[in-house]
Structures are given as C-alpha cells and as structure tokens.
Write a structure and sequence with these properties.
heterodimer, A: 318 residues, alpha/beta, Rossmann fold, B: Rossmann fold, 5-stranded parallel beta sheet, 3-stranded antiparallel beta sheet, 4 helices, 8 strands
Chain lengths: 318, 177
C-alpha cells in the first residue's frame, strides 16, 4: 500500500490491520504522550488548500509522535495565493524531499491527481478532497464505534449506523458508508431528499427521509455539519426548518436507544444539526473521536511510511 | 533440517532458567518478567508458571518492540503485536526480558529503548531459550537455555505448542533444508 486516497483502496484485511495497529498504539501510549522513533528522518508535508483545525492538528500530532519532521503548508499565505498551480507546488515539495504528503483540497479527485501525476514520489494521504472522500475520518469513526461496542476484530455486524444531514456534500459520509459496509454494519442515510446524492442507494446503504422514524433503531447517530461553503443553491427553506426535521435535539435525544451513541466529525454547529445537550451528553463520543483520530492517523502513517520507500522490499533474517 | 531441542529439553531448560532467575535476584520480590512477542511472550508465561511453583508469582507482561526497531526501513511494515505492562509498572523493578533466540542483538536493543519509554527499571536482565551467536551489538544474555553455534547461512526455528502445535527447536539451512 503506497497511498491512501479512498476507502476503496483498502481490503477488509488491510482496514482491520490499520485499526489493530491503532489499538496497539493506543494501549502503548496509555494516556500519556510518548514519542516513538519509528519515522525519524522522514519528512511529512501537511498540504492544506482548505481550512481545517482538527484534521491538520491530528495529522501533525500523529506524525510528531512518530518522530517525523512535519512541514505545514496552507494555501493562504503561500505562493498558491499568487497563482501557483498544484503541479508547481507538488514539484517544489518533491525537490524538498517530502516522503509523505497529506493533502486536503476543495476539488474532488485532487489527491488522486497528485498520486497519479508522476510529479511526486511521496506517499499521498487524502485528508479530504471536495465532496469525494475523507478516508482517515472513516477509519477513526469505525475504530471509535468498535471500541465503544467492544467488537472483536473490528466486526461491526449487527450494528445500525444512521448518518444524518448533508450527505450530498459530505466526503465523511461517503468514506464512512464504504468502510462501515466493509466491516459489516448496516447504514441508513437520513436527510431531506435535496441533500441525498443521486444513486446513493447503490452505495449499499438504505435511505430515509424521516429522522423521527429511524432514530429508535439506531445504535450510532452520526450527525453531519451543514456545509454552507459548498452550497450554491437553496437545499432547504431555512436553517430552523432543517433543524426541526433533521437536528438531533433534546426530544430526539430522549428517544434514542439507551446504548446508542452520538458522533460528529466536527466542527459542530450547535443548535443546527445537534443541540448542546446532545453534544455534551454522556452518550456523545465526539471528544473520543478526536483522541482516537491521532492513533488511527499514526497507524496510517506507519503502514504507508514505516517500511522501505522503494518498491524493492528485501526480506532479511532476524 | 535437524532437531536440536525436543519438548523435554525445552521444559528442562526453562526450569533451570527459572531457578537461576531466583538465585541471581535473591528471591522474586522485585522481579518483573516481560516477554517479547510472539514466542518470547509464551516463554515468559511458562517461566512465570515455574516461578510460581518454585517460589512465588511475579508480575509478568509483554513488550512489543516493533516501533523501536532499526531495521524498519529494510522490510515492509509489520503489524504491531500487543504490549501489556503489569499494573505496578517497571519503575525500580528488576526486569527480566524473555525472548526465544538471541542473534544480532538488535531486538534487545529495541527492547531496551522501548523500556526506557516506560520507566527506569533498577536492572534489566535477559533470558533466551537459544543463543546462536553472530552478535552485531555489545549485548549478552544473563540466562541461556542452550548455546548453539551456527553458521550465518543457517536458520534457527523455535516452535512452541501455543502457536506451532508442538515444542521443538530446529536448525535449517537458508535454502530450506
């Protein structure tokens, strides 16, 4: 495995290996921040063309805990704002000797372009490309679910996950559906018809337009942010009306199963897709997701960059 | 391919090592056993059973050293194996590391680094079932089941009932037999 661009790049076996590695890293660190020498001398570039707080910090923290050198590059304040193309940026990073590039871009397919272009020899990790995919978020969500429900070998069969909200613009939803289905969970996409992408049924998830009908059956309620920045049209009459139909408010919170949990990839718009009491309730795993994100990203970096950089992998004696 | 130790030999070697650990440390009150997975962890389990029979139970766990290895870049990434440190920790303890084969010494160097991340033991000792020579680092074992002089073309394979179905140590040539 050289790049991580999409959940489709992973076999079930590889996904479980990454999650198992994350668990061992979680246990080794035992609540304390430990520095491991594993990626010493490797250079990792955080190439962020879009705003991000938690993903960038999470990757940076993961890379630093593995002793890699991290270069943060955000499009604002860089030559990109002077008109530099992705190609020139990539070639600059190549000339600087980057071993791994973590890219977030507003265009779907940007990570794939970077990986396939031949501009760069580094491993590429997709940290969110447009409305396409965000594979490490899906990995950390499945990790969080499996740990919460104490699932052996990350087998999520028998669990029903509801993904609620702006499915149309959500790369988190897309990656999550693919991975949750691979690991055996059932997925229900819940949104107004205008926010369900065409052909969503073919993802292997069922679609429901009524949050109230679905909520009592869900083991996991994953709420998504309304992405104003990607909305060029009117998808619903007003935020208040959206919130009334699809927000996780106090009334819906009380109708959830007692064992059910609440997740959100962040950043949260409190009062829109999730109420404050839901976000802060004991059923909320939101902060656990952030903590787990670092371990999962460490595992991904280890699997992509921990071995020999060239394709020739010599087997040596112990 | 030749068998060097059979099940009886392995069991006797582990009994002797157990007695030596007690003797060296003047009892077991400060001893913690840490096996290096996979097979070192099973050997540590067996030694801890012996120690409990002979004298008293000791805290024991396992320590995965993969992330501290210096040969990571030479081979594809390997899945991590479990680490479990006994709740009392290793601070101030006499830690006995247990592994199956002592060869280049690089695994043990990695284990010493991994230990350093966890705490500061009073002493670190090393018990191995087989010492086959060819050290690349200044590292030696305190307790050895059997010294087996080998050629660098040979491979020593330790098989244990817990993972391999039977107890046996065999030596084979690199070509397979």
């Amino acid at each position: 495995m050289r790049h991580l661009l999409s959940i489709n790049d992973l076999t079930v076996q590889q996904a479980r290996e990454i999650l198992t590695t994350a668990y061992e890293l979680d246990r080794v660190s035992d609540g304390q921040i430990k520095k491991l020498p594993t990626l010493r001398g490797r250079t990792i570039v955080n190439l962020f063309f879009e705003d991000s707080t938690r993903t960038r910090i999470s990757f940076e923290s993961a890379a630093k805990r593995l002793s890699a050198d991290v270069i943060n590059f955000s499009a604002k304040g860089s030559s990109v704002s002077k008109g530099e193309s992705l190609k020139d940026t990539a070639q600059t990073l190549q000339a600087m000797g980057a071993d791994g590039v973590i890219i977030r871009h507003h265009a779907s397919g940007a990570a794939q372009r970077l990986a396939d272009s031949g501009w760069i020899s580094a491993s590429v990790i997709n940290a969110g490309d447009g409305t396409h995919e965000h594979p490490t978020q899906a990995l950390l969500d499945s990790y969080t679910i499996a740990r919460n429900f104490e699932r052996e070998n990350y087998d999520l069969s028998g669990l029903t996950v509801g993904i609620v909200g702006d499915i149309l613009h959500s790369r988190v939803a897309r990656s999550n559906v693919l991975l949750l289905r691979k690991l055996g969970a059932s997925v229900i996409l819940i949104a107004p018809p205008t926010l369900i992408p065409v052909g969503a049924e073919s993802w292997g998830a069922t679609v429901s337009y009524s949050f109230d009908d679905a909520i009592g059956n869900l083991d996991v309620v994953m709420t998504l942010r309304i992405q104003h920045e990607r909305m060029s049209n009117f998808f619903f009459p007003s935020l208040q009306e959206y919130s009334r139909g699809y927000g996780l408010d106090d009334a819906r919170l009380s109708r959830m199963k007692g064992s059910a949990v609440i997740m959100h990839p962040g950043p949260m718009n409190r009062g829109v897709e999730i109420s404050s009491s839901a976000a802060d309730s004991h059923q909320s795993l939101v902060l656990r997701q952030v903590t787990n994100g670092v371990f999962v990203r460490m595992a991904v970096l280890y699997h992509l960059l921990g071995g020999p950089q060239s394709a020739t992998q010599s087997e040596m004696g112990i | 391919m030749a068998s060097i130790l059979d099940a009886g030999d392995i069991s006797r070697a582990l009994k002797r090592i157990s007695h030596e650990i007690i003797e060296r440390n003047h009892g077991l009150s400060n001893v913690t056993l840490l096996g290096i997975p996979t097979r070192g962890a099973y050997l540590a389990d067996r030694i801890s059973v012996n120690l409990a029979e002979i004298e008293s139970a000791v805290p024991h766990g396992m320590l995965d050293v993969t992330l501290h290895r210096d040969d990571l870049r030479l081979r594809p990434p390997r899945p991590l194996l479990p680490t479990s440190i006994p709740p009392e920790g290793i601070e101030g303890r006499d830690v006995v590391l247990v592994d199956d084969v002592l060869f280049s010494g690089r695994t043990i160097r990695a284990a010493l680094d991994a230990l350093g991340e966890i705490g500061r033991p009073r002493s670190v000792q090393l018990a191995v079932l087989v010492d086959r020579g060819h050290r690349e680092l200044p590292i030696r074992a305190d307790f050895v089941g059997k010294n087996i002089p080998t050629s660098s073309l040979e491979t020593i394979r330790v098989r244990l009932a817990e993972v391999d179905g039977a107890d046996e140590v065999i030596i084979e040539n690199q070509e397979g037999n």
